[in-house]
Amino acid sequence: MGTYDVVYSFRHGERGEQSQVFTVTIDADTVIRKPSAKEAAPPQWTALGFQQCPNCPLKAETHPTCPVAQSLVSVVDFGNQFKSYNKVGIAVTTEERSIAAETTAQVAFGSLIGLLTATSGCPHTAFLKPMARFHLPFASLEETIYRVFAMYLLAQYFRAQAGEKADFDLGGLKRMYENIETVNLWMTRRLHAASQTDASLNAVIVLDTFAKTMLAVIDEKVDELKHLFAAYLPKS
After folding, report:
1. How many helices (H) and strands (E) does the chain have?
2. Is the pLDDT at 19 greater than 60, yes or no?
3. Which of 22, 90, 158, 201 is the most exposed place for a label (fewest CB within 10 A)?
4. Angle, CA of 65, 50 and 77, to the nearest 5°
């Protein structure tokens, strides 16, 4: 099925005169990032055994580096130029559209890190691949919650079609986000060793805050969305 690109273009400096472009090339079939030929040998902090997540199912014999950490190397190196509150201009271009924003380094890096994490090949982030395929940078909390629920419930439809048990109580979604919490925690420990500033580190913390929010509001937010589907429900 080929590949597709998601391009993050940063503008920074006092007058926005400096720029940096990150092109994330993703296999359209597996929705896993394809490493660039220019990528250097991974640094020590990406080794699988360095601050390895306690719930990681991978073995160093077959995966010498952590997939998430390896995907973040160039972003972390670039992020070392920034404090989390520094203002940056950012444009994200996909096959369908281009979205531009003036925001903080923390928010900009959080969006890019979220995409890289989902497409890294980490077993615990694989469930996010549908959202990565239809990447929506800088989505609000409400938009992201809707997208997560829609993704998960469509997955249950496909499970039922395949003769598997469907989970409409969202218990599986909660377990997935519990695993994501663990990945985020141990990734911040890796980044403490890799980062010279707080921009990339705080970006992961923002993603972790969202994971915690999802766990806290899964049942509540489902009910809050119910009124949007009145046309599908029996008339009272």
Report:
1. 6, 4
2. yes
3. 158
4. 70
